Amino acid sequence: MKSIIEKANYCIGCINKPCSKACPLNNDTGGFIKLIKEDKLKEAYNLLSETTILESICGRICPHTKQCEGKCIRGIKGEPVSIGELEAYIGDLAIKNNWSFTENIEERKEKVAIIGSGPAGLTCAAFLRKQGFQVTIFEKHNYLGGLLRHGIPEFRLPKNILDDTINKILSLNINIELNKELGKNLYLEDLTEYDAIFIAIGANVSSTMNIDGEQLDGVYGGNELLENENYPELLNKTVIVNGGGNVAMDVARTLNKLGAKVKIVYRRSENEMPAEQKEIKEAKEEGIEFILQNNILKINGKDHVESIECIKTELVAVENERPRPQNIEGSNYTIECDYVVMAIGGKPEEDIVKSLGIELDSKNKIIINELGQTSNNKIFAGGDITNTPSTVAYAARSGKDAAVNITKYLKGEL
């Protein structure tokens, strides 16, 4: 096993830093790795802290091969630099040694409400506190973390790592209000004492295909299964997971570990799967079957799921888009199964977002301008509730950007 220093020394220190450009947070990847080489570990943390507060998390769960490591020059002829592992190492070291995210905060009187405590909310809160604002996080659950806690399984993100990261953020003297759900027992009109509001409540209602049989008993949403952990009897049951992203991989691997026989159905090829390559590889190693270039036409059963009808697909090239799946006529066939899980994306809770009185798009996501502001200038939004790409790093980036622009707004610079 290579040491951390050996892995850092493998980096050749590219002048153009393509890895940094591919990082949604724009972490100075080459810079912090250079500091590791020089055994300046606290300085490496300080440099990372300019752009992120989630080193221990993003270092573990980001789709590195599609982001920083995917652009690593070393990766052209060999393995890329282990950027994620190096970032997680520095984050873990900072927690262990209680290195501060920021020092000498100059307190300000302005108050900001953060609604939601996922990666966007936590990041926004930390960077606003760095500027001295009084921050309160409102969270609908009785715990913090959002999808980091209930959307990512323990085998990918250990809960103690998440807890340590959240505690480090809270040590900045951030106030929290748990069991406060927007549109249920928390309303925007309750927050008049706050000078700005950041909404980051996610889009965690599982999308559906609107096909026959989707209403049958035994059809589940992937997001809800992971969040509520209310699993049916799974031992030796056949489960179809529909989708090709990280939620599909996470729910498939979770159900497989609980004793189910899991088959993933995806309408494109493996090359088009949004999931991290490492996740796909581990799912295969765990015995999960992949049924690629197949589309589900309907779910069969009287009251409960009994089978699905599939049709094979071919990929058709489309200019400036990824290949589009097209059903192959006459290739229909049936797969017997006990349960079907839809993991094809998420959408907001319609009733809640429509009650906010701010402008929404056709998918009920909050419309924001280039500054992260909604149609109400006092209210900012980020993460999955907007059209931010659905990864932890992009959500965190939206929170960091919002913090920058909320700071400007509160200082009268917008």
In short:
The protein is α/β, with parallel strands linked by helices and 414 residues long.
Tags for this model:
414 residues, alpha/beta, 5-stranded parallel beta sheet, globular
Report on this model:
This protein has 414 residues and is of the alpha/beta class. 31% of the residues lie in helices and 17% in strands. It contains 14 helices and 16 strands. The chain has a 5-stranded parallel β-sheet, with helices on one face. Strands 6-14-7-8-9 form a 5-stranded parallel β-sheet. Helix 11 links the parallel strand 7 (238-242) and strand 8. Helix 10 crosses helix 11. The protein is globular and about 65 Å long. The mean pLDDT is 96.
Which structural category do the helix and sheet elements fall into? alpha/beta
**Helicity level, as a percent range?**
25-40%
Question: What proportion of the residues form beta strands (DSSP E)?
Answer: 15-25%
Shape: globular
Strand order of the largest sheet: 3-2-1-4-16
Secondary structure: number of strands: 16
* Number of alpha- plus pi-helical segments: 14
Mean pLDDT: 96
Q: Ranges with pLDDT <50 over ≥5 residues? A: none
Q: What characterizes the major β-sheet?
A: 5 strands, parallel
Give the helices and strands as they follow along the chain.
HHHHHHEHEHHEEEEHEHEHEEEEEEEHEH
As a whole number of angstroms, the C-alpha radius of gyration is 22 Å
Q: What is the first-to-last residue Cα distance?
A: 51 Å
Could you give the topology of this structure?
Blueprint: H1 4-9, H2 18-22, H3 29-37, H4 41-48, H5 55-61, H6 83-96, E1 111-115, H7 119-130, E2 134-138, H8 147-150, H9 159-170, E3 175-177, E4 196-199, E5 205-206, E6 219-221, H10 222-228, E7 238-242, H11 246-257, E8 261-266, H12 277-285, E9 289-292, E10 294-300, E11 307-316, E12 324-327, E13 333-336, E14 339-342, E15 346-347, H13 350-354, E16 379-381, H14 392-410
Parallel strand pairs: 1-2, 1-4, 2-3, 4-16, 6-14, 7-8, 7-14, 8-9
Antiparallel strand pairs: 5-15, 10-11, 11-12, 11-13
